[in-house]
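Action item from last week, closing it out:
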Amino acid sequence: MRAILMYHSVDDTGSVISVDEETFRGHADWLAAEGPSVVPVAALLDRDDDEDLVSLTFDDGFRSFGSTAWPILRERGLPATVFVVSDRTGRTNEWGGRSEPGIPVLDLLDWDAIGRLAEEGVEIGSHTRRHPRLAGLDADRLEDEVAGAAEEIETRTGARPAGFAYPYGSLDAAAEARVSSLHDWACGTGLDVLAAGAPRFRLPRLDAYYYRRPGSLAAWGTTRFRVRLATRRAGREARSRLAERSAT
């Protein structure tokens, strides 16, 4: 089974974007000792479905990645990708100057820290300039958010980002087209494993928040693992449909 794990922050707040340090260390220990092989996303895409492989991604570029997550991963030789919001580096995740209900306000990596991480082998991906929902943006704003972020990351790190992550998983045909013209692959928030023929610019991921219970990752690839995943996916889709109906 191939899959991409999605993390955000490693902290003790208990929020939906958080995994605590003890849990994260448990994930890393299991992956290093007996779990699926951890490979960069680009390598994952070129492998067969019958291989047990996983890629680790971190959205938003929280400071906790540099202070907590990366030292744990580096010690175990596990690669990772961090998607940074280029205009918010060194600030916080108050996107658009606002905090979101249930989401803690947390510090983000600055460019010096991002540069050091890149030198140590962390892949730096793009998460736009300001973290907006891309679906429905006009052409000028879309260009600014996608191309502008890619240019800034290349200027700061010396390498154009190969990977991209859509903020909130929000995309439409125009966003996917512009992202695909500048990057090699892109991740969404679709809750699924990676199957043959998965759209290269709408890659699904497994949210690490759902695997906080001890041993929950250890069922990797089993029928029980897949059934629980399907149940969570169905629940998420049902909630999304209800939210859409309420909004209209």
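Closing note: The longest strand covers residues 53-60.
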